Amino acid sequence: MRSRYSAFVNTDITYLLHTRHSSTQSLDNSQLLQQSCQETTWTGLLIHQCHQGQRNDTQGTVTFSAHYIENSKPGVLTETSRFVKEEQQWYYLDGEHSTSNTPPATMPGRNEVCWCGSRKKFKRCHG
Q: How far apart are CA 30 and CA 42, in angstroms?
């Protein structure tokens, strides 16, 4: 999960395509991925829960929140991703997600915890 997040941050389209399961690779368009990565600044990843995904497992899920800025507006992508392991390699299958780019009506103070859930002070995150 973290390696795919890093690939989004670094616009590593080749890695994103190679770590997607072959049964769902046709869903990714490299040009759309490239455009999305260039228009989005990823600002943090918070893993909420992992289920399975250990050395002897063949499947697993990860629930996470990925914080970003797009068109000068902050947002959060929350997803539960499914992975499968084949020949000692983990592949992204799919995920159920929701996005939110609506900050709260009243922003926190500079030294308060940020609204996005990153656990950072607002001034260091979205301030």
A: 18
